[in-house]
Amino acid sequence: QRLVSVSRDRSLRWWNLATGACERNVVAHGAAALCVVRVSHGRIATGGADDGVALWSDAGDELARLHGHAGWVWSLALVDDDTLASASEDGTVKLWNLRDARCCATLTGERPLRAVAARRNDSGSVELAAGDDHGRVRLWTIIGHAIEPHGAFVAHDAAVRRLRYLDKGHLASCGEDYRLRVWRQTRCVFEATHAN
User: Fold this and answer.
1) For the chain, how far is it from start to end, CA to CA, in angstroms?
2) What's the DSSP call for residue 12?
3) Helix (H, G, I), strand (E, B) or coil at 17
4) What 8-state DSSP symbol labels residue 32?
5) Which of 20, 83, 183, 193 is a good FRET partner for 63, with 20 to 30 A between their CA atoms?
6) SS3 of 50-114
7) Residues of the chain with pLDDT under 70
8) Which pTM value belongs to this model?
9) What letter does residue 168 receive in the DSSP assignment?
10) Residue 63 CB: number of other CB atoms within 10 A?
11) What is the pLDDT of residues 11-21, one digit of tens each?
12) Residue 163 DSSP one-character state
């Protein structure tokens, strides 16, 4: 088993979990590498402070560069086997077609974005959430090629740093206000504090 990691030293590393050894190390971005996610077909996607998204093979070979953001790419989320979402300092979420490495949609926010999460529903639609630097979460629903705003709410008193769908109907958010919150739609159903 292996783990991948990114770092502000611009690197993307593959780690052997059994031995703890780094098996491969590549320079992933021209500035800090900020996020990494496993995507379909054994590929890995990274986002960086060079405003870019890169696709990698599991062996460490660069497959594509996705250009279009005008700010740091803070977060990535797999929407489906062929679509990746990226959240950027430029205030946009971009949806990327992974088959041909092109942007297929841009969702605009009002503030710089720090986090993005996606979850497929039983009906086949996708819930997409993005968190900004003022603690607000915006929601969209994707049905086929149609993307509809689904609402927005204030989740934190500072920047939203992480978003994760836990299960059907529950979204977890972590903010720079030292709070972890779990939401059902726009209602907080759980809260805990953290040190950092």
Assistant:
1) 29
2) E
3) coil
4) -
5) 20
6) CCCEEEECCCCCEEEEECCCCCCEEEEEEEECCEEEEEECCCEEEEEECCCCEEEEEEECCCCEE
7) none
8) 0.94
9) T
10) 14
11) 999 999 999 99
12) E
